[in-house]
Amino acid sequence: MMNIATIGTGSIVDAILSAINELEDVTCTAMYSRKRETAQELASKYGVSTIYTDLESLFSDANVDLIYIASPNSMHYEQAYQALQHGKHVVCEKPFTSTLQEAETLIALAKEKNLLLFEAISNIHLPNIKVIQEQLPKLGQIKLIQCNYSQYSRKYNDLLAGETPNVFNPHFSGGALMDINIYNLHLVMNLFGSPNTVSYTANKHANGIDTSGVVVLKYPEFIAECVGAKDTNSMNFVLIQGEKGYLQVVGGANGCQEIKLQIGNEPAEEYNAQTKSNWLYYEWEAFRDIHANGDHKRCYELLEHSHSVMSVLMSARKDAGIVFAADQR
């Protein structure tokens, strides 16, 4: 049994709790919120017995094996660090940390204490990722990859009205790159590894945060273009183009809802290996199995991937001149 506790009460926590409700041997036993009433509805919905308003009390709870952190981006590092210091395994919501240095510190601490540490990035655990990997050789030499994940944020209206919500605040490590384009980067780098060069051209608000932008990853044999936007909507997709055909990921990189393969003039082929409507199920199934088997090797492989993505995020931010408060620490 893996007993988890959550930090945060947003919609992602609701979705996560819904996903683990479908899993055997995973239970949420505690929840943290600065105000008890903020967590009460969610705790009641999922039968969570304990609500903490003090983090130290949560970290000291002997019944909790793993802490899931879904606080604002800038808080991930400190809360994960404290949880690891208290001997808890950690799942940290994407983006893993604000900076590469923070990621490296957490990874080193987890290894030192023989604890499990994960970034909660759902798409790399989806069954359709394996389908893509299996079908890629049919495309021949890859030449171009196009990704677009755009989702107009209701918080963008607040930004236009003169407010500074966390997701558009450089002090909270926000922005379109960290919040939404990260799914494109994880997918491309999960399939093809780290690029040779990284550039990022962004639409930026007056406060310096990116509301949308285009990351270009250059590999030895092909170019990947990753578009992410919180200030506009789009048809979301991934398109991988090879000399023999192309592969389309319907719905975009975050859910990989369906795979369509077109090779030359042959009839198009369609694939979908995902049976769960809540695709967060698959990442938590992976976390549970790694925990149950004490599979540190697999955990470290995932951490190496998260480290590589964080390195690219840092390069992209530097290229676009996006500075977080965390960069000054």
Automatic annotation (TrEMBL):
Q: Which domain of life is it from?
A: Bacteria
An example of a Pfam family matching this protein is GFO_IDH_MocA
Q: What span is annotated as the signal peptide, if there is one?
A: none
Domain Gfo/Idh/MocA-like oxidoreductase N-terminal as annotated: residue spans: 2-118
Where in this chain does the record put each GFO/IDH/MocA-like oxidoreductase domain?
A: 138-247
| Name listed for the protein in its UniProt record | Dehydrogenase
